[in-house]
Amino acid sequence: MDTLTKEQRSYTMSRIRSTGSKIEDTLRKALWAQGYRYRKNYKKLSGKPDIVFVKQKVVVFCDGEFWHGFNWQKRKYNIKSNRDYWIPKIERNMTRDIEVNINLKKEGWKVLRFWGHEIKKDLATCVKKVIKEL
After folding, report:
1. For the whole model, what pTM was predicted?
2. CA terminus-to-terminus distance, the chain
3. Phi and psi for 124 in degrees, rounded to 5?
């Protein structure tokens, strides 16, 4: 059961930002430390990728599990409040992620997506996958 009031939940959700999350910063710092330079939240591309290597045409998205629907078929049943809002919103995010991937690939970009838990638990592998595409 949710122990927060509606006002507390609203305040908490309002603090969540679309850029500069811990998972993004963690991956960025690791790549920077390896000597790789990139653009952040590149607005010229669809989906505004978190990390962009323009010359190599590689984009990286760092997806939070809640917002992008990790293990969605099981997890959507855990949403207890405001289901009429959250379920369609997250499903639309998932659809948009697919559309963004397709559009970027059509334009010749290599697209990498990492879940937040992948970056937290195995940063070295995520960095290796990015470097391999470069």
Report:
1. 0.85
2. 46
3. -60, -40
Fold of 18-133: Endonuclease; Chain A (3.40.960)
Q: Which of the four pLDDT bands, split at 50, 70 and 90, describes residue 57?
A: very high
Of the chain, the percentage scoring pLDDT greater than 90 comes to 75
> CA dist 87 to 8, 16, 42, Å?
21, 18, 28
Work out the number of other CB atoms within 10 angstroms of the CB of residue 3: 6
Question: Please, what is the angle between helix 22-33 and helix 123-133, to 10°?
Answer: 60
Give the whole-angstrom CA distance, residue 72 versus residue 120: 20
CB 100 within 8 A of CB 46: yes
Mean per-residue pLDDT over the chain, rounded: 91
Q: Tokens at residue 14, please?
A: 């309002």
